[in-house]
UniProtKB/TrEMBL annotation:
One BP term from GO: proteolysis
SUPFAM superfamilies: Zn-dependent exopeptidases
Peptidase M20 dimerisation domain boundaries: 203-361
Name of the protein in question: Acetylornithine deacetylase/Succinyl-diaminopimelate desuccinylase
Gene Ontology MF terms: metal ion binding; peptidase activity
Classification of source organism: Bacteria, Pseudomonadati, Pseudomonadota, Alphaproteobacteria, Rhodobacterales
Organism: Paracoccus chinensis
Pfam families the UniProt entry points to: M20_dimer, Peptidase_M20
Keywords: Hydrolase, Metal-binding, Protease
Domain of life, per lineage: Bacteria
Stored InterPro entries: Cyt/Met_Dipeptidase, Peptidase_M20, Peptidase_M20_dimer
Length: 461
């Protein structure tokens, strides 16, 4: 158990070692580990080996483990008495084009001074090499103060996160015994707006469905057949329009089963974030929040399920005009899911609803696209409160439990396949330009990120 004085020493060690830590990160960033482009396969492997060497140098038992694609890097410390932790990050990066929009070579990283403070510029600086190194640097400082690494740590670094994580699930399945811990930590997200530290504790799931309605056996002339023959576009839009009521609620029977109300703690946390729906929408040229009446903006994007029509096609939509009753119409529909909503049950309810709107001589065909439940972490586990306090102490601003409207599949995989909850704690900022030219990571994010992990390790061990 770490005493506070030793934590202070670890933090001092991190501060004193910051210049060397930045040099190590720059060396890592110089390796062009672009996972999606086969031309860089050797570089991806080189990045894995660089990381393994670093981790072994810090004192981990570290290995590069092959998969049918790019390798995994796994490092561990001996089991201890306390809580075991699995830390996840990824060492692969996105492609760099268009190259001409970079203000420096993407794999020649440098520290640049900007009006907002110094930043480390280069591909992967924020996503995710800089972020994963915050944890490695915290471990390094811990070791140099305590003489040993924290026990019960497992580090897992993936090399295919930016290219579909094809081999992650099989790897987790085959190595479940080695990877299972009491809790997972992922450092691949941003802080809440304007640099407020946050722990993401819930992620929405996803259900996707493609619907094809067919009527006549050919396209029809609207003068000869219009008014008599079924129009599949009309059939489809009727079915989809009645999926929501005037209050913005989805009408499918059982749709809200498993969609939980906010706890008092989360409601208070989210209130304190001061989210302004109108301001948020104004960034995309909108003003008026739409959606369920009586819900706050953050509830709508983090804690309420959605049903959206993402695409619709049929008939003639080209230049000019053509008076046609098309033979078929198609739509793509997706739902973001929360709590314990069951994607299969919702898919079945949507299909039943559409079938009920199909005239007898039309047909409908369904095609499933993706299926994942929401991930909701158990924040009553004291580890969550302890990590929140640690972040608050480091940043001097109240840390918050937040949600994410999208999905981060690895967190769901950890839950389903290894039975672990995940704390998603990232130090990125909204202007880091990840996946874009001129990616950067603030030196403050790097430095205080490592300090944050030292505090969190001290609090959780
Ligand atoms: Zn990432």
């Amino acid at each position: 158990m770490a005493t506070d004085s030793r934590l202070d020493e670890v933090l001092e060690r991190l501060d004193a070692g910051l210049p060397e830590a930045i040099e190590r990160l720059k060396a890592f960033l110089r390796i062009p580990s672009i996972s999606t482009d086969p031309a860089f396969a050797a570089d991806v492997r080189a990045a894995a080996h660089w990381l393994r060497e670093e981790l072994a140098g810090v004192g981990f038992d570290a290995a590069v483990m092959d998969t049918p694609g790019h390798p995994m890097v796994v490092a561990r410390t001996p089991a201890g008495e306390g809580r075991s932790l699995l830390f996840y990050g990824h060492y692969d990066v996105q492609p760099v084009d268009p190259l001409e929009l970079w203000n420096r070579p993407p794999f020649d990283p440098q520290v640049e001074d900007t009006p907002e403070g110094p930043v480390i510029r280069g591909r992967g600086a924020a996503d995710d090499k800089g972020q994963l190194m915050t944890f490695v640097e915290a471990c390094r400082a811990w070791k140099s103060v305590h003489g040993a690494l924290p026990p019960g740590l497992i580090l897992l670094f993936e090399g295919e996160e930016e290219s579909g994580s094809t081999n992650l699930q099989p790897f987790l399945r085959e190595n479940a015994g080695m990877l299972r811990a009491d809790l997972a930590l992922i450092c691949d997200t941003t802080m809440y707006a304007d640099g407020r530290p946050a722990i993401t504790t819930q992620l929405r799931g996803l259900m996707g469905e493609e619907i094809t309605v067919r009527a006549a056996d050919r396209d029809l002339h609207s003068g000869s057949f219009g008014g008599l023959a079924a129009n599949p576009i009309q059939v489809l839009v009727n079915a989809l329009a009645s999926v929501k009521d005037a209050e913005g609620r989805v009408t499918l029977p059982g749709f809200y089963d498993g969609a939980p109300e906010l706890t008092d703690e989360l409601r208070a946390d989210w209130q304190a974030l001061g989210f302004d729906s109108a301001e948020f929408l104004s960034r995309v040229g909108l003003r008026e929040p739409i959606g369920e009446k009586g819900r706050t903006g953050l509830e709508m994007v983090w804690n309420r399920p959605t049903l959206e029509i993402n695409g619709i096609a049929g008939g003639y939509a080209g230049e000019g005009f053509k008076t046609v009753l098309p033979a078929e119409a198609r739509a793509k529909v997706s739902c973001r899911l929360v709590g314990t909503q069951d994607p299969d049950a919702i898919r079945a309810a949507l299909r039943a609803h559409v079938r009920a709107h199909i005239p007898a001589d039309c047909t409908v065909e369904f095609h499933a696209h993706g299926n994942s439940q929401a991930s909701v972490m158990d924040t009553s586990d004291p580890a969550f409160g302890a990590a929140k306090q640690a972040l608050t102490a480091e940043w001097g601003r109240e840390a918050a439990f937040i949600g994410a409207g999208g999905s981060i599949p690895v967190a769901g995989d950890f839950k389903r396949m290894l039975g672990m909850d995940t704390m998603l704690i990232g130090f990125g900022r909204d202007d880091d330009r990840i996946h874009s030219p001129n990616e950067k990571y603030d030196v403050e994010s790097f430095s205080k990120g490592a300090r944050s992990w030292a505090r969190i390790i001290a609090a959780l061990m």
